[in-house]
Write a structure and sequence with these properties.
The chain is of the alpha+beta class. The protein is 38% helix and 17% strand. The longest helix has 10 residues.
Length: 77
C-alpha cells in the first residue's frame, strides 16, 4: 500500500525516497527515510486511509534524526 501511494503522490518508489519500515507492532511503528524526504514521507503516511480493505488512521507522533536516538529516548516500546 505504501509503495502504491508513493508512486501516486510523488511518482517515485519507496526505495528512491529511502523509505523503509524498521519496526512495526500492529499499533506503532518506526519508518526510516532519507532526511530530505522527511516531510514527503510524513505526508505520504498520513494520506493512507485503508490497508487491505481495513480503514486506518496513521499519525506521526515523533521524528528523530537517527533511529538510535529514537530508541534510546524510548519513544517506541
Amino acid at each position: 500500500m505504501i509503495q502504491k501511494q508513493c508512486k501516486k503522490m510523488y511518482n517515485k518508489n519507496c526505495r528512491e525516497m529511502g523509505i523503509k519500515i524498521v519496526k512495526l507492532n500492529g499499533q506503532k511503528g518506526i519508518v526510516r527515510c532519507d532526511h530530505i524526504e522527511k516531510e514527503n514521507t510524513i505526508n505520504l503516511l498520513n494520506s493512507i486511509r485503508e490497508v487491505s480493505s481495513t480503514k486506518v488512521e496513521i499519525k506521526t507522533l515523533k521524528t528523530s534524526g537517527t533511529i538510535k536516538t529514537f530508541k534510546r529516548k524510548k519513544l517506541f516500546n
